[in-house]
Amino acid sequence: MGPGGNVRIDVERSIQRSADESAAEIRAFLLERKIYALNLISSPGSGKTTLIEALLARFDGKGGVAVVEGDVETEIDAERIRKHGVQVRQITTRSSCHIQPSRLLSVLREMDLSETRLLLVENVGNLVCPAEVPLGEDARVVLLSVTEGDEKPLKYPLVFKTSGLLVITKTDLLPYVTFDVERVRRAARAANPAVEIFEVSATTGEGMSALLDRIEALRAVKNG
Amino acid sequence: MHELGVASEILDVALSEADRHAAKKVTSIRLRVGVLRAIEPGNLSFLFEHLARGTPAEGALLEIVEEPVRVECGTCGVSEVSSIAWECPRCKGAGVSVTGGDSLSILSLDVDT
Q1: How far is the C-alpha of B100 from the C-alpha of A141, rounded, in Å?
Q2: Which of A85, A173, B52, B78 could be joined to B57 by an S-S link, Cβ 3.0–4.6 Å?
Q3: Between chains, do A15 and B104 touch, taking CB under 8 Å as contact?
Q4: What is the pLDDT of residues A76-114, one digit of tens each?
Q5: Within a domain: B26
């Protein structure tokens, strides 16, 4: 251990400490304002924006929904949501494949959230990176459309392990694709025994009200 | 490309620890990476090498200790597996709970003082 030698330094430290610190700040920020936050994660095109639109329709008139859209490029999703007359911000992440908590925190600080009771964060469309980065959310929602295949929980385990809600979308297409719903349910439960699973079709409306009811109930608990 | 953020954070920690111990050079960094993290070691090393250029951690070797997933089966007990499975690797039963495999941490650094 003398000078000029090779020494081993024990560190034992999580690599995500700075991200975790920002996430904790977001959590405190939301708790203080009694805002219930969902982090929506899925592949591109699984129905995140559509679910947000359904939630906006449900909470229309009850006030209090704010939306943050994350995409690598463009404001297309924010513009789509803005038409519903709610407060929405777009985060364009450029080269990054997920929303960084520090970025979300600064966006939230710029927004007027005095009336907000429900915050919907639509993460960048992929099942890998967003799973690794907590955003201080109350619950993580992973969406899986039946056209993507029932092996996704095996290929992208972390997102299924860390999500409290699994929403299987586009179930009206089940007759046309090979997708074993039970296989997905089994895998999701093994990854997270507490996961709540919903099967929905935004096209026929089937299953949507059960999901929206559940989110409304979760939100009500936090709003106090 | 999610390894870029990870590589950058490893470099930050390595440089601040090296500085704190008045080290001249970081020669290797040991990491514990859970298999659920989907980190591609070659990709991580490539990005780290690029970021570390011109710093005391230039040329440092990344040693990855893989953390397996623990599959607990009511019948067969605990198995450790290095790729994710939602069934027991022994009896193929589906009644399992899966834990571990999500670590992402720096264990230690070797430095020249």
Answers
A1: 21
A2: B52
A3: yes
A4: 999 999 998 899 999 998 877 889 898 999 999 999 999
A5: yes
Task: Verify whether the Cβ–Cβ distance B86 to A95 is below 8 Å.
Answer: no
Question: Which tens digit of pLDDT belongs to each residue from B27-74?
Answer: 999 999 998 888 889 999 999 999 999 999 999 999 999 999 898 898
**Strands of the A6-14 sheet, one edge to the other:** A6-14, B104-112, B25-34, B61-67
Q: Is the ipTM of this complex over 0.85?
A: no
Nearest CA in chain B to A186: B94
The pLDDT score that the predictor gives to residue B1 is: 53
Domain that holds residue B23: 3-67+101-112
Mean pLDDT, range A154-178, rounded to an integer: 95
Q: How many domains does chain B have?
A: 1
pLDDT in tens, A36-47: 999 999 999 999
pLDDT of residue A63: 64
Burial tier of A36 (Cβ tally within 10 Å: 0-12, 13-18, 19+): buried
Annotated domain spans of chain A: 17-223
- Cross-sheet strand order for the sheet of B77-81: B77-81, B69-73, B96-99
Name the residue facing A97 among B1, B37, B108 (closest C-beta).
B1
**Residue B45 domain-assigned (yes or no):** yes
Asked if residue B24 belongs to a domain, the reply is yes
The verdict on residue B78 lying in a domain is no
Residue in B closest to A156 by C-alpha = B36
A17 CB-near residues (< 8 Å, 6+ apart):
B9
Residues of chain A found within 8 Å of residue B18, distances taken between Cβ atoms: 9
> Which CATH number do you get for residue B28?
3.30.2320.50
Q: Which residues of A touch B109 (CB under 8 A)?
A: 8-9, 11
Q: Is the pLDDT of residue A1 over 70?
A: no
- The model's pTM is 0.81
Q: Report how far residue A24's alpha carbon sits from residue A1's, in angstroms, rounded to the nearest whole number.
A: 38
Please give the CATH number for the structural domain made up of A17-223.
3.40.50.300
